[in-house]
């Protein structure tokens, strides 16, 4: 617990140091305030837009696509990972397809996906599902491979079938890996949601809000929105890390 608080304090000190350095660089004239706004100005703007209906609507648009896409990715990738991890013959058969699709940058699919999902929300969801499925799939597969073979053999020796072994031993052992995959996929999903918006998917979202602010030459507003984007990522990751620690405390103890 003490180490955890120390890590948080060090992180906060690092952020504070960065903001102070940013402010001093502009205040001393090393960088013109026309090129880079004062850190204090950006922070004030970040607080102000929390009361802006336009910004809150944009956040809701991004988070809606994030949540829907992540849920679809979990529903697709985790069962597929269980299938591939449990049946080596199927994994070998599908491995070339997986290895072909996995390196494709999701944003490169935007022109293709637009034909099938012209609506802004649909476009973002499809891209999020594609990108977020890989960490879920890989973590689920490797989690199943990491299951103690002795535990499985013990259940088989008592007459349990393959499905019972999967339910009683393999899935509980794989659950921490799956949750880690969810945490990684959540970060990827947020990146893809905003990237799709920045590349002109339309609709509402933080990326669209940032584009509008940039078109109005409001760099302080752009940076304020970017700051909140980073805060959303930190919040999501922190909540999922805490969920991991609460559900699987032994992993932290053995790490």
Which value, in Å, is the CA radius of gyration? 22 Å
Note the overall shape: globular
Beta-sheet strand percentage?
under 5%
Terminal residue distance: 14 Å
Helix content: over 70%
Return residue spans where pLDDT drops below 50 for at least 5 consecutive residues. Answer: none
Element string (H = helix, E = strand):
HHHHHHHHHHH
Mean pLDDT: 85
The profile of the biggest β sheet is: none
Number of discrete helical segments: 11
| Estimated structural class | mainly alpha
For the secondary structure, the number of strands is 0
Summarize the structure.
The chain has helices at residues 2-27, 39-48, 53-86, 88-101, 110-116, 120-145, 149-157, 162-198, 206-215, 219-247, 249-254. It is mostly helical and 255 residues long.
Describe the structure.
The protein is 82% helix and 0% strand. It has helices at residues 2-27, 39-48, 53-86, 88-101, 110-116, 120-145, 149-157, 162-198, 206-215, 219-247, 249-254. The mean pLDDT is 85.
């Amino acid at each position: 617990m003490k180490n955890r608080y120390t890590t948080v304090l060090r992180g906060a000190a690092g952020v504070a140091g960065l903001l102070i350095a940013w402010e001093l660089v502009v205040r001393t004239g090393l960088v013109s305030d026309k090129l880079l706004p004062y850190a204090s100005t950006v922070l004030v703007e970040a607080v102000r837009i929390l009361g802006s209906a336009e910004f809150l609507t944009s956040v809701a648009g991004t988070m809606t696509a994030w949540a829907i896409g992540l849920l679809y990715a979990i529903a697709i990738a985790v069962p597929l990972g269980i299938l591939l991890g449990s049946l080596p013959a199927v994994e070998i058969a599908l491995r070339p397809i997986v290895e072909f699709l996995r390196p494709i940058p999701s944003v490169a699919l935007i022109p293709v996906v637009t034909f099938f999902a012209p609506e802004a929300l649909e476009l973002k969801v499809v891209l999020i599902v594609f990108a977020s499925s890989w960490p879920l799939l890989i973590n689920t597969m490797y989690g199943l491979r990491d299951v103690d073979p002795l535990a499985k053999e013990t259940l088989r020796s008592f007459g349990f079938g393959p499905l019972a072994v999967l339910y009683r031993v393999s899935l509980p052992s794989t659950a921490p890996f799956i949750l880690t995959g969810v945490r990684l996929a959540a970060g990827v999903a947020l990146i893809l949601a905003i990237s799709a918006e920045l590349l002109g998917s339309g609709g509402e979202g933080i990326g669209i809000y940032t584009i509008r602010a940039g078109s109005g030459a409001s760099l302080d507003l752009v940076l304020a929105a970017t700051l909140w984007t980073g805060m959303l990522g930190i919040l999501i990751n922190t909540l999922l890390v805490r969920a991991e620690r609460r559900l699987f405390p032994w992993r932290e103890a053995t790490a």
